[in-house]
Structure formats: structure tokens, C-alpha cells
């Protein structure tokens, strides 16, 4: 996903690794709590919980933090989080999807709407932009676990639809309902993945000129910094020159 990977890269180029890491831990803990509370307590029988735990381990979250999040979810002490989605347009006509876990829908909706407005975007109704994306299961492995050909072969055998391999790693794509089965099949061969989630893949990307790119990234960064937001997906494509300038 060009938009997602470019946004991730720009955050690292801007030297925000520590802030990104802290935010990631918060998101992962919240996801573990929700997964533990909504499904079976055994990770072996709860693919969502297993994926959340593995993502936390891949991010080097301390074991105590992971166990504490699981206990909060299983013990019923965790907050009641609702899964909500917001959709809108950013500068340059870029479609933006914001997924959140929140214990206060009014607070989160107000904050997201305000962020869109402050940064040249417009918050739309549900399904106002999601038709431009496909809902997919996404499983990520490091590049070192297999060659592109071996990963493609294994993924097809597991029931996946496609694989996108690069120096950054392998992303295996599958139908949403097949995520757990594909994840389990790949785990038997390559071990636990870095990430296994349901997400959105743009059907097409929107080229954004250098002038609007900076405004767009300010919007995406502001949305990403909201404590309730789990992930931000957008269908943009910007030049390497624009990325370098924004990072500088």
C-alpha cells in the first residue's frame, strides 16, 4: 500500500521513532485487551488475540505489558471499546479511512472531524470513500524469512490471493474470512508473522503534487496522533523528492 508505507517512512525520516513507538505500544495494548475480551482466552484458539500478541512481541513490547493487557481483557477490567470507522477526503482529493477503538464515540468523532477541518480535509459519511478500497486480510513477514518466490508459493498453497514482496518484507493478502486459516498455514512454515490484521487496500492511488503533499501529511500525522486511532489508510502516491523535502 503506497500511501501507508510512504506515511510510515516519513514518520521515521522525521526522527519520530520514539513517539511512534510509544503510540504503537498504546495501540497494541488496546488491541490485545479487545481481542482477549471478545474471543476465547486461549491465543491458540483466538486468531485475533494471537496476532495481537505477536504484533506486540514484534514491536519489542515488554512481556509484562502484554500479560497485563491480556489479564485486563480476560478479567473484564478493560474499558469497553467500540470499533468505529471514519471516512473522508484530504488535500489533493485523497481518500482517507480512519479506524479507531474508543470508549467515547462523541469525543473521537468530534476530534477526527476537527482534525480533518483544520488540515484542509473533509470528514464524510460512512461508506463515502471505502468503495475505493478493498477490505483484505494482511499478513506481514520480514524479508529474510523467505525469497519472494517461496513466499508466493507458500501463500497460494495457504489460500492467499496475492503477495507483495520488497526489501521491507512480504505482505500476504487474502479474503477477510480467510485471514485466520491463511495465518495458521503460514505460521506452520515460517513461524509467527510480524502482523496479521484486517485492513483496507486502495483500488487505485491518487498522485499528489509536491505542494499538497505537505498539507496531506500534516493531516495524516494529526489523525495518527489521536490516542483513539488505531490506523490511518489513504490512497495517495507522492514523489521521493516530496518525501525528502517534508522530512527535511
Automatic annotation (TrEMBL):
It comes from Benzoatithermus flavus. Keywords: Cytoplasm, DNA-binding, Transcription, Transcription regulation. Residues 81-236 form the TACO1/YebC-like second and third domain. The lineage of its organism: Bacteria, Pseudomonadati, Pseudomonadota, Alphaproteobacteria, Geminicoccales. It comes from the Bacteria. One of its GO terms (molecular function) is DNA binding. It is found in: Cytoplasm. Residues 5-76 form the TACO1/YebC-like N-terminal domain. Belongs to the TACO1 family. This is Probable transcriptional regulatory protein U1T56_14110.
Amino acid at each position: 500500500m503506497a500511501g501507508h508505507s510512504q506515511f510510515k517512512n516519513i514518520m521515521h525520516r522525521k526522527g519520530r521513532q520514539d513517539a511512534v513507538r510509544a503510540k504503537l505500544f498504546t495501540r497494541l495494548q488496546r488491541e490485545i485487551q479487545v481481542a482477549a475480551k471478545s474471543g476465547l482466552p486461549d491465543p491458540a484458539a483466538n486468531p485475533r488475540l494471537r496476532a495481537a500478541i505477536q504484533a506486540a512481541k514484534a514491536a519489542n513490547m515488554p512481556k509484562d505489558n502484554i500479560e497485563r493487557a491480556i489479564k485486563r481483557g480476560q478479567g473484564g477490567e478493560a474499558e469497553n471499546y467500540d470499533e468505529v470507522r471514519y471516512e473522508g477526503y484530504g488535500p489533493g482529493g485523497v481518500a482517507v479511512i480512519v479506524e479507531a477503538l474508543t470508549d467515547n464515540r462523541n469525543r473521537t468523532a468530534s476530534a477526527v472531524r476537527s482534525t480533518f477541518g483544520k488540515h484542509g480535509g473533509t470528514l464524510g459519511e460512512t461508506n463515502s470513500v471505502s468503495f475505493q478500497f478493498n477490505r483484505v486480510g494482511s499478513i506481514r513477514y520480514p524479508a529474510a524469512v523467505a525469497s519472494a518466490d517461496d513466499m508466493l508459493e507458500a501463500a497460494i498453497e495457504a489460500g492467499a490471493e496475492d503477495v507483495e514482496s520488497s526489501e521491507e518484507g512480504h505482505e500476504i493478502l487474502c479474503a477477510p474470512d480467510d485471514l485466520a486459516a491463511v495465518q495458521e498455514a503460514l505460521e506452520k512454515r515460517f513461524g509467527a508473522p510480524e502482523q496479521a490484521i484486517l485492513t483496507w487496500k486502495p483500488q487505485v492511488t491518487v498522485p499528489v503534487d509536491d505542494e499538497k503533499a505537505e498539507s496531506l501529511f500534516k493531516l495524516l500525522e494529526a489523525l495518527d496522533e489521536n490516542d483513539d486511532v488505531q490506523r490511518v489508510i489513504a490512497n495517495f502516491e507522492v514523489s521521493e523528492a516530496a518525501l525528502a523535502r517534508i522530512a527535511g
